[in-house]
Amino acid sequence: MIEKILIANRGEIALRILRACHEMGIKSVAVHSTADDDAMHVRLADESICIGPPAAAESYLNVHAILSAATISNADAIHPGYGFLSENGDFAAVVEEHGFTFIGPSPNHIRLMGDKIAAKKIVKKAGIPVVPGSDGAVTSIESAVKIANEIGYPVLIKASSGGGGRGMKIAKSKDEVGNAFSLARSEAQKAFGDNSVYIEKFLMRPRHIEIQVLADHHGNVVHLGERDCSLQRRHQKLLEEAPSPALNSCERVRIGEIVAEATRKIGYRSVGTVEFLFEDGEFYFIEMNTRLQVEHPVTEIICGLDLVREMIRVSSGAPLSFTQDEVSFSGHAIECRINAEHPSTFLPSPGKVGDYHAPGGLGVRIDSAIYSGYHVPPHYDSMIAKLIVHGSNRNECLMRLKRALAEYVIDGLDTTIPLHQKLLESRDFVNGEYDIHWLETFVARTNAGEL
Asked: Is 291 a catalytic residue?
């Protein structure tokens, strides 16, 4: 069994992993930059090691420093959390080559699913429905126009190695394909060092639905239902809920079983999330994330399971602690991402936290590493907390969320709490009638004083 884990991350996810370690009787090692000397995960870990200056490239992305810290601390394993090196197949490989256990999927699966073109081919062969589009990379404007004409407009030109909305351009007609193709390739090269792109049909009003899976080394695979992540701004999620108000029970069971079987066929292990666009009763594969998701708490709450604990057990060679028949879903959960950003302009708002009061009570969970007096550094992602609420049904969950947001106090910084409160006043959101484009329209209308 793993006895000591180095957590190669920071913020709330580092603290989340640390708590699971302590509950399992496993020693924890926190690594940190000089900007995170006073971070909560550093304070609570059994050991802490500074691995570099504030810049992520010199600290949290510094593979040599992380491996040195693991060696010095005699760690058995490394957990990457999400972001940073979590979906870097080369990092996972070098971790294992140095004799440490990588808590996550195999390096091969990380690499395969990180290539959007290869991933699409693999999952299609395994039985997962995909968005109509090119069979591989598109290398010329002429080819792009030909494929776009065949599948119909509008089309989406996407970076093969993309993520976070970078390297994605829409072409609404033949005349727009050339410019969109060139811009997508250029942006992909700058962001990912890979200018390969592919083309998919652009769906007009889809939902973003993702299925959580968990697999072990023994061929056991379970799915843990879906999450609805359609509330996005510039392809960045703001709020997630489970189950989705857009799916019926038949659709829910059908896609869960398809994903679980496909995961088994490709020999995957650890946690994984298969993401889809859902429109008019049909699912279309987007990508597979080979890591723990930011929004994993909503699944944990409705299933009563600890995904981080299962990740650690699976990585140590143990079988899953439950079967598909033992998975049950209870009530409704919603997660709000609380970012240190202005709620209207979304400009980052780093700085010192003044008064801080987290909401509590039945069905309320806070995943955060901030506290009164903490300095939110300007060097990293702006998310500073996740507010997760649970209710026996969606209506109860919404009322509890409204109450919890009203209680939440984070002084000294601008945060997105007021935006979440405005969402709860929207009839469309309350009725569950939204798609992946809805939030940007809502924000624009709110900022214009039309709502």
From this structure: yes
